[in-house]
Amino acid sequence: MKYYAGIDIGGTRIKMGIINELGEVIVNENEETKKEKLELFTQIDHFIKRHPYQIEGVGLSTPGVIRSDGYAQTSGAIHCFLNCYVQQELEAFLHLPVIVENDAKSAAMAEKWIGAAKDEDSFACLTLGTAVGGAIYMNGQLVRGLGGLAGEFGVALSSLQPGDYNEHSFSYHAATVAGLCREYSYSVKERVLDARVIIERSQQGDEVAKLCLSHFYHAVAVLFVNIAVMIAPEVIIVGGGISENQEVMEAIEEEYQNICKDYHVLSLVEMPHILTCQLKNDAGMIGAVYSFLRRYKKINDGNSI
Questions:
Q1: Are 287 and 105 in contact, with CB atoms under 8 Å apart?
Q2: Shortest CA distance to 177 belongs to which of 225, 148, 212, 228?
Q3: Does the record bear Kinase in its keywords (predicted)?
Q4: 136 in the same domain as 41
Q5: pLDDT class for 303, splitting at 50, 70, 90?
Q6: Closest CA to 23 of 140, 98, 110
Q7: Residue 217 is part of a domain; what is its CATH number?
């Protein structure tokens, strides 16, 4: 059995795993993300060296628009990676082969490998977190697009008004932190950055929380509709922490179905089903390793390794 390091970098926490060639997570650790590049590289190096496994390579999942050569055109909350050849620099530091992959694309590849999408040829994966991330599979293959931009659903605009484009993006309305938490915090003049707090307050009768959640459900459902009519996937798979809340997912799907019913054109056509990611918080690590295997082992999606 061969082993690989799967690293999933988030703005607050970094998830690091030892993963075998079947996608099984053997070691799983979670630490605070270091902010400087050298510290971050050292953090990864120390993780690999303190475990008794011969590591064949490293799959790194990170926010941002990542080119196929591992260059980060954008880097989200990982500011030290901006305009950086992350793959080349990390390979030189670790003395191991490395693949760098966008976090949402990593999640999609994990679900395609051993998760909810393993039997799907065409699907979109949507991650609802600090911002909205996404990935597209068509005809069994991941779609990267120009410079890795394909699937960046959160950057899409939800308004026709000129100017203030960040405020018109779907991340500004349909992400749990940039959207839901921002609107609620502004409304109650209190900084709330955890969607679970808003959900709990809604259940306790907080009318502002209920209203903000209804706006959030509608924004996500509209994004589903736009994805459906633009790329027509068989299913849309939803990940991110909030996807683990069954009540929230049912509310989003109900709003999606209402739009499909009320919008006459959509009521006449087959629309994608909504599924929830199966691999939860491990998806980024597993998918980054799968990306490594696809590149270096020349495997095809849907085939066993």
A1: yes
A2: 212
A3: yes
A4: no
A5: very low
A6: 110
A7: 3.30.420.40
Cβ-Cβ contacts under 8 Å for 85 (sequence gap 6 or more): 69, 70, 71
Token duo for residue 256: 């999606």
Which residues, 6+ apart, have CB-to-CB distance to 159 below 8 Å?
A: 168
Token pair for 279: 């691999």
| Beta-carbon contacts of residue 74 (< 8 Å; ≥ 6 apart) | 63, 64, 65, 82
Q: What is the mean pLDDT of residues 248-273?
A: 97
Report the alpha-carbon distance of residue 117 to residue 122 in Å, rounded. 9
Q: Which domain holds residue 236?
A: 119-277
pTM over 0.85: yes
Structural domain contains residue 305: no
Enter the tokens of residue 247: 């009540």
The pair of three-digit structure tokens given for residue 236, joined into one six-digit string: 């849309």
**Sign of the dihedral defined by the CA atoms of residues 41, 47, 51, 53, in that order:** negative
- DSSP label at residue 33: P
DSSP state of 169: B
Neighbours of 184 (CB within 10 A): 26
CA distance 259 to 253: 10
